[in-house]
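lol forgot to send this yesterday, sorry. struct tokens for the thing we talked abt
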């Protein structure tokens, strides 16, 4: 069983994430979408909401599990779950510069490899931050997020300092 993890805060999950997760699912037997919470960060959606949105959106895809991940070492999480690869989407050289040291450190810590997938050109400009900014200023983001996420954004999700899961 080849198991991969796609980590991120997914605040909220968007079409760029979905595209990379679907490609990861075609390469591995199981993909864990690991929803993280950094206590130092302010989130638009609670952890429960971010998990719900990811689960609602990914329900129709086979071999995908969505679960929360605490703020501990990702390498240790991978070791405990028997994860052989971390899958990351790359949008730009600055993504690569940011990701490369983490990939090397994770491999040295637990042997887990990082697989980089080039972002789909249509979604290469997408980030959760930009989507929230555009939506906050009244722009339409319906082309960039799944329907359940769009519904919550229009309804006005919570703005919270999320707490890490116990
Ligand atoms: P974080 O919380 O780690 O800042 P996100 O939750 O926004 O990041 O994204 C998680 C991961 O999804 C990123 O590390 C990246 O690998 C991937 N990703 C984000 N946006 C895109 C995109 N537009 N296209 C492809 N992959 C993306």
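and heres what i got for the seq, position by position
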């Amino acid at each position: 069983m080849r198991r991969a993890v796609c980590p991120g805060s997914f605040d909220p999950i968007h079409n760029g994430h979905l595209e990379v997760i679907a490609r990861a699912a075609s390469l591995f037997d199981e993909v864990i979408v690991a929803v993280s919470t950094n206590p130092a960060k302010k989130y638009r959606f609670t952890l429960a909401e971010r998990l719900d949105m990811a689960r609602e959106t990914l329900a129709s895809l086979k071999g995908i599990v969505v679960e929360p991940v605490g703020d501990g070492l990702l390498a240790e999480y991978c070791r405990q779950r028997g994860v052989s690869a971390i899958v990351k989407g790359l949008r730009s050289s600055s993504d690569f510069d940011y990701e490369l040291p983490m990939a090397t450190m994770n491999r040295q810590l637990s042997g887990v490899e990082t697989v980089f997938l080039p972002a789909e050109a249509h979604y290469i400009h997408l980030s959760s931050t930009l989507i929230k900014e555009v939506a906050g200023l009244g722009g339409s983001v319906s082309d960039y997020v799944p329907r359940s996420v769009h519904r919550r954004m229009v309804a006005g999700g919570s703005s919270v300092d999320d707490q890490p899961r116990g």
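The longest helix spans residues 93-110. anyway ping me if u want another try
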